[in-house]
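Data deposition worksheet. Section B asks for the primary sequence of the deposited chain exactly as it was used as input, without tags or linkers unless they were present during the calculation. Section C holds the resulting structure in token form. Section D is free text for depositor observations; keep each observation to a single sentence. Incomplete worksheets are returned to the depositor.
Section A, Depositor: J.P.
Section B:
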Amino acid sequence: MDPFKDEDNGREKFIEIVEQYFRRTCERTFFGKTHTDGCITMRKGLLWIPLAILEVKPELGIGSGCPYVQATAYYGRYIVDGLSEAHTKDHEQLWYSSCCPAILIHLTGPYVGIAGSVYSQQASLDHLSPVIPLLFS
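Section C:
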């Protein structure tokens, strides 16, 4: 991956790569008043379900927060909003049958991290891999 001038350039290229890999469209999705850098979703009846949440930062310590923390916050916001929506019974049925798993992918400069999240009694999130450097020698 070539270095990028700013977060927008890096995000666009990263989303393009993720879309090719997953063969699905990745769009910015709003969670409350904030939005993800990218999200792959699925519709089930009236509900939309995040399958993958992406966050991108240009470098470590640059940008408005940690991309891993932001991605986990978006997943948590999805769960909280689901509890307060009019479709609560639909959400409950979905949670009991699937646990709403999602992949959280965060890119910070030349480092990518992959985490997972599920909702059972509470939201559980954890890294599935170490942060992987994408640097070439």
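Section D:
The first strand starts at residue 30 and ends at 31.
Helices lie at 7-22, 67-84, 88-98.
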